[in-house]
Design goal:
The chain has 231 residues and is an alpha/beta fold. The chain contains 7 helices and 9 strands; from the N terminus they run H-H-E-H-E-H-E-E-H-E-H-E-E-H-E-E. The strands form 2 sheets. Strands 3-2-1-4-5-9-8 form a 7-stranded mixed beta sheet, sandwiched between helices.
């Protein structure tokens, strides 16, 4: 992944950080359920932690928490919340998820929520998943989520792409615009099929415990896939 792409990706999330924070503050039930299974002595990382909506329940439940994100602006927002709430068992790191600055086999658990699909290029996404395996302790657990390709909102668009066989990009690539608070900013996404998600997790060497489709906003088809994996 080129430096230009990484800079563009960070710039995108920096630009929408304040707007994102004002609309994304409630942790997902699936993540809370995962956190509740962890030990009070666990060390946990939230990869792609954004504004911190999932690191806070982690910090209340676990011994040590690390939040990692590509956006300095989102990390700044998360840091202010940590300080305001006097949370001292959590540290934040500015980094690309393809090169996680954590030693091998350090973490008991990982949240990697709604971030993998923002990485351009399949090899880069698999590299990021390999990093998840590298930093997890043996028998450690990770909860990983991605957007579904066949969800209600984008289903027809991808059916049309499949029919006419456009090959200018990876099938599943799409720009999704952030259009809140007067903004109009494209964000790169790679929307997954369940089969592709399964294959990429296995290629990264992760053992799949479960993959579930979940309807967070869609009515008919799953809009997210959640995978529970282990080392």
């Amino acid at each position: 992944m080129s430096g230009d792409y990484l800079n563009n990706n960070e710039n995108t999330w920096n630009a929408i950080a304040k707007s994102f924070d004002s609309t994304r503050f409630k942790p997902w039930k699936q993540c809370i359920n995962f956190i509740d299974t962890l030990s009070k002595e666990d060390t946990v990382a939230d990869i792609g932690c954004g504004n911190g909506r999932h690191i806070f329940p982690c910090s209340n439940h676990c011994k040590k928490v690390v939040g990692i994100d590509i956006s300095r602006e989102l990390l700044y927002i998360a840091q202010k919340k940590l300080k305001k709430n006097k949370i001292r068992n959590t540290s934040l790191i500015h980094s690309d998820s393809r090169n996680i600055p954590i030693k091998n086999h350090t973490l008991d658990a990982i949240l990697y929520i709604a971030s993998l699909h923002n990485i351009r290029g399949r090899l880069n996404r698999i590299q990021s998943l390999r990093e998840i395996k590298r930093v997890l302790k043996r028998n450690g657990k990770a909860l990983i989520s991605v957007w579904s390709r066949w969800q209600d909102k984008y289903r027809k668009q991808f059916i049309n792409k499949w029919i006419i066989h456009r090959r200018s990009s990876e099938f599943g690539d799409i720009n999704i615009y952030w259009r809140q608070h007067g903004l109009d900013i494209p964000r790169f996404y790679h929307l997954y099929s369940k089969r592709e998600f399964h294959i990429d997790l296995r290629k990264a060497g992760l053992e799949i415990i479960e993959i579930r489709g979940v309807k967070l906003n869609s009515k008919k088809y799953s809009d997210n896939y959640f995978a529970l994996v282990t080392h």
